[in-house]
Model the fold of this input.
Amino acid sequence: MQIRDGSDGDTIVVAGGAGFLGSHLCEKLLGHGHGVICVDSFLTGSQKNIAHLRANQGFSLIEHDICDPLEIDEQIDRIYNLACAASPPSYQADPFHTMMTCVKGTGNLLLLAEQHGARFLQASTSEIYGDPEIHPQTEEYRGSVNCTGPRACYDEGKRAAEALCFDLFRLGRVDARVARLFNTYGPRMQPDDGRIVSNLVVQALSGRALTLYGTGHQTRSFCYVSDMIRGLVALMEREPNPALPINLGNPDEFSICELAEMVQREIPTSKDVVYLPLPIDDPRRRQPDIRRAVDLLDWRPEIPLEEGLRHTIDWFKQMIRPADLQLARLEAASAV
Ligand code: UDP
Done:
């Protein structure tokens, strides 16, 4: 395995670089003086997310679906794979493509990494634990995924992608690392991709009722985007390769009702709540055990949910045009 050392001025591929997390990562890497090649199909990524990066000399964009093999002439030092639809409605919209993105897409990027002797980081997910039976989730836990359910295209795809990474690592072909990301939120979430934080904030700002699925007693642990990006870079640059998957997330656990109450405190005009059916296989509890990240990466999240939520609300306020908010409020009022 010929691996090049990381240093300022590396050339780094960020697959999914126009997405929520990817665009923050591109920004961080450019800020560290690296060249960034953003690869994105724009299926769920957005040109808006990277508009402010386009003028940077170190930034380039390749519009490409990683399900197809990718060739890059320039010498590459690092590849981050963040390319995949990640919210349940968006990854279930085209489940075949989701599974292919995880398996073929990750395979294609691993082969690219091998060709260049580049280090590789796979953005895996807490979804590989399915609806977990142990709490909090340690990396040793092997998970409880329904392999025939509607979440399987993502969960099983991501599990297979992890297997590919560890196989090529064991074979000495790629210096691959695997991070398991727990629910992450912050500016540049898509307002309409169906995730809880963006849904509740957009609903509250536009005067609509907050939608809670099931009883709202299911839990999640929410990590602010800047903390997550710091964790991803720490894992990529860790010497030597920890050769183990690593949970990255904020261990503070909240029920969905508690999150909704927090949103209502921050946006006091939002009062109504509507309960809708719980999606199939919706995990009941989720909380990362992050001892491994603390020990091996000296990483821990710093931004509490209340603070991160405020930044997120401020961003959505600017993002959604005041005229649209006014219109949505009028529609909400006339629907009552
Ligand atoms: N959820 C909800 N209302 C919404 C969107 C989501 O109650 O408008 C719930 C969903 O059922 C799940 C949790 O919030 O229990 C987190 O959902 P999300 O889609 O953000 O991510 P997941 O962790 O399920 O992948």
The longest strand covers residues 119-125. Residues 177 and 241 are 7 Å apart (CA to CA).
